[in-house]
From TrEMBL:
<dbReference type="GO" id="GO:0008446">
    <property type="term" value="F:GDP-mannose 4,6-dehydratase activity"/>
</dbReference>
<protein>
    <submittedName>
        <fullName>GDP-mannose 4,6-dehydratase</fullName>
        <ecNumber>4.2.1.47</ecNumber>
    </submittedName>
</protein>
<dbReference type="Pfam" id="PF16363">
    <property type="entry name" value="GDP_Man_Dehyd"/>
</dbReference>
<dbReference type="InterPro" id="IPR016040">
    <property type="entry name" value="NAD(P)-bd_dom"/>
</dbReference>
<feature type="domain" description="NAD(P)-binding">
    <location>
        <begin position="12"/>
        <end position="312"/>
    </location>
</feature>
<dbReference type="InterPro" id="IPR036291">
    <property type="entry name" value="NAD(P)-bd_dom_sf"/>
</dbReference>
<keyword id="KW-0456">Lyase</keyword>
Length: 323
């Protein structure tokens, strides 16, 4: 893809110190655009991981880092006053499905209120494009291929927060002509992945001969999507002006946790020690994306199979100093 295809000049990326935000910034910074990255470095994992990502991004002179909490709208407003922002890619959020059951109010603040703040700023400063990172979790216990036309069935406060943001986005798009595109991401993995996610937990534990915990009997299935395909989906969405759409970004294939562990064992060359614990009610049985719409509207075509992606990730983690 050509790097000169964007018509935006100043792109605001929230959550730039996070797993997906960091990977997206790295790719976008290869273009001529200026990236303003906002993050308050509040992810639930090691602070050093986040600060190293920011340090890495700051090496590019078309990157500006703003360490601020998006809940503080008056402080964020100064950035909108100072820079002529063309589009917003909003990734900042609290991300743990299970944690959202323990601390649901955090998800109201950092997901719903923060998105509202940004939509308000879009309205005030006449920003025409907003790309939102939603989640497959909004489908809840829907079965089979998950299609954007299905009625959402959130089964966790996290999923409710993501669905609420989509509804606010739809309303602002209608009222103020903001182009709002909600990308529903299906379990993302790859280099710089969050340490709390299944693939990183499994890979790290097996490499270190530690036991892995599987919640449920291992039959839960996920559509795991490699980070490069997700970044490509965001880049494609950023090039379009889409009035209002919800679009799945997945692979269209799912795999059970048991089969995933077998593959990881094979690629690392070691057996896993597995401890089975009770499953969570908030975890859907399966996520499996219907990606027909992404193909049609964005020309999105995921390229990395689970086997290729696991090998790439295991190779990366072997070389990385920050796990
Ligand atoms: N990783 C996945 O598999 C996945 C799947 C579906 C959706 N998503 C969505 O993609 C986005 C990015 O996820 P990720 O995996 O990179 O998570 P992450 O935790 O690595 O990144 C989120 C970032 O948001 C920042 N943040 C949170 N609240 C903030 C606030 N109030 N002000 C400023 N910054 C704040 C955090 O510091 C963190 O850097 C999230 O919106 C998440 O819900 C991720």
């Amino acid at each position: 893809m050509s790097n000169n295809n964007f018509d935006a000049k100043n792109i605001l990326i929230t959550g730039c110190a996070g797993f997906i935000g960091f990977n997206l910034c790295k790719t976008l910074l290869l273009s001529k655009n200026n990236i303003i990255g906002i993050d308050n470095l509040s992810a639930s994992y090691d602070h050093l991981i986040q600060s190293n990502r920011v340090k890495n991004l700051k090496k590019r002179n078309n990157f500006l880092f703003v360490e601020k909490n998006l809940l503080e709208i008056s402080k964020i407003k100064t950035i909108f006053k100072q820079y002529n922002i063309d589009n917003i890619i909003h990734l900042a959020a609290n991300v743990g499905v299970r944690e959202s059951i323990v601390e649901p109010l955090k998800y109201v603040d950092n997901n719903i209120k923060v998105t509202n703040n940004l939509l308000e700023l879009c309205r005030m400063y006449d920003i025409s494009q907003f790309i939102f990172s939603s989640s497959s979790s909004v489908y809840g216990n829907n079965e089979g291929y998950l299609k954007e036309t299905m009625a959402p069935q959130p089964i966790s406060p996290y999923a409710v927060s993501k669905r609420s943001c989509e509804l606010y986005g739809e309303t602002y798009s209608y009222l103020y002509d903001i182009n709002f595109c909600s990308l529903r991401l299906f379990t993302v993995y790859g280099p710089h992945q969050r340490p709390d996610m299944a693939i990183s937990r499994f890979v790290n534990a097996i490499r270190q001969d530690k036991a892995i915990v599987v919640n449920g009997d291992g039959s839960t299935r996920r559509d795991f999507t490699y980070i490069d395909d997700i970044v490509d989906g965001f880049m494609r969405a950023a090039k379009k002006r889409i009035k209002f759409e919800i679009i799945n970004l997945g692979t269209g294939k799912s795999i059970s946790l048991s089969s995933l562990i077998k593959k990881i064992e094979r690629y690392i060359g070691k057996k896993a020690k597995i401890i089975y614990k009770e499953g969570y009610k908030s975890d859907p049985v399966e996520t499996l994306a219907d990606i027909t719409k992404a193909k049609k509207l964005l020309g999105y075509e995921p390229k990395i199979t689970i086997d290729e992606g696991l090998k790439k990730y295991i190779n990366w983690i072997g070389k990385s100093t920050v796990k």
